[in-house]
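Case study.
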Amino acid sequence: MKPERRRFLGWTAAAAAAATLGPGLRLVELALARSPEEAASTLQRWGLLIDTASCSDCDACVTACHEENGVRGHNRPLTDAQWIRKVSLRDRRTGFAQTLPLMCQHCEHPPCVDVCPTGASFRRADGIVLVDKHTCIGCRYCVMACPFGARSFVHEPVSGQKPDVPRGKGTVESCTLCVHRVDRGETPACVEACNRDGGAAMVFGDLNDAAGELHRRLRTAPSTQLRADLALNTGVRYQGL
Amino acid sequence: MASVQYREIEGRSVGFYGLLSGLALVIAGGLAAAWAMEHHGHVITGMSNRIVWGTPHVFAVFLIVAASGALNVASVASVFGRELYKPLSRLSGLLAVALLAGGLAVLVLDLGRPDRLIVAMTHYNFKSIFAWNIFLYTGFFAVVALYLWTQLERRMNGYTRPAGMLAFLWRLVLTTGTGSIFGFLVARQPYDSALLAPLFIVMSFSFGMAVFLLVLMAACHWSGRVLGDALLERLGRLLGVFVAAVLYFVAVHHLTNLYIARQTDLERFLLWDGGIYPLLFWVVQILIGGVVPLVLLFSGRTSRARGALAAAAACVVAGGFAQVYVIIIGGQAYPQLIFPGKEMSSSFLDGVVAGYVPSLPEVALGLGGVGLALALTVLGLKVLPFLPRSLADGKPDSATA
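After joint prediction, the assembly is written out as follows.
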């Protein structure tokens, strides 16, 4: 066999092997998702579904969130940090009343990230919107820009911080989707508490994962994004609104 | 062109040191307020997570907007070639730099972490208009300094016109940037309008001219310089045109909002039943800051009286503060629309007008910025020849020694 021919056959075999094994390797990659050492990846888009019909008149999610993240108030609701809050709604025309939790909507195009002068406000590749506590200068432009009032400026010295959740007076913070838990493969504290003590109204998951519960629920019933007119593509979706 | 004789102010009198001491006290008050806010946190202010930007921002935005407007007189002289205003160009540049410094000092000292200013200078997100403004503000200092140099240094006089043109364009962009801080806030109904950029530009023309007139009259009065009636009348008429332009833009902005169903509740709040905000709007911004100055400046009986001119300028300043207050505080007090058609209530007082009372630290910090701007102007006038020896009518050159 001529060397050229031999080389050609060799390359062809290699290409065929790559074409056969490539998708398999890709599947393995998807299945493994990410280990703690890996950076966040666009393979995931973490999100939440809140079924307002199941949302009971409790604040288990709020209590759990603030406990998990070491957020303590001083009984001053307008200056205390509120990473998540229960909102009561009443239709102006029909009087229909409902209640739901409201927090950072983890937008794909977050206005808070757009306006931040230092880039402290940022969006992780997996869709979680966070504040870098080292580069936030406390200008509060992101608080002005957030359509959902989801951001809090820390007005007072903080105590009792959790190792996973750095906080600091004079900086801005908001729901992190419990990123420290998500990175360990767990669900956010609010979702866990809602399933345990509340109406099981919250589903956490990967919006990209077609086999996941979140994807299934969103695929089979209508849902809405808050301020959909702003085309922010929020990671948090609501049903029953 | 015959040269104008400039001279530093003497600056030895009791009045001079009294003025500087008074301003130093005001600045010290501002610094003490900033320290207290930094130490205890913003909880000691009237600001909250609903009223995120408060009185310090009202002062800061007024000063920054007035800064670019204070450069008007120089622009009219250098860019549009009006010889009459040329002797005032240096003061115009000095005041612009001083006002900007005062405004930025307030803005920086109000930050949650003013100690991280270096972060703001080293980390940039270029999608943020705030980040752009950092360049626009620092660049303004450089451009106006260059402009002043071409005026103060005889060998550089030939470059005054291009430098003036650069400063003029820069200030237009700068005020566009300041207006866009609010204009780009898509999620808040009271902002979210491209009109805010040109509105801020005409506001800067008006506020800056008013501050310039007051400073000019005070400086000439206290340093015993002649100030011609004709010159003052021309400046007054220019101020009147700017005041009218602001009223026009304000009218267009509100009329547009009134036309949009989604915005009518907001307009009712701002113009009618919003408590302090309609009061400030109609009485201070429109009546005192708009109608009264126009009457004073254009009625035949008062347009030549110096007292009336000074009163008109002071009214414009008062109206300007009210306008910025209504834009910044009123705009935040109005609840954000998250669920159209629904009444909203929560521990965050969603759906309810947010309360706000300016606190002492905020007012002290804001006044500190005004004090700094004025102190820098006074010191500038003493150390460098910014003011002509005489500004008598028709013969600016005759004062040449």
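Observations recorded in class. The two ends of chain A are 72 Å apart (CA to CA). Residues 46-239 of chain A form a domain with the Alpha-Beta Plaits fold (CATH 3.30.70.20). We will return to this complex in the next lecture.
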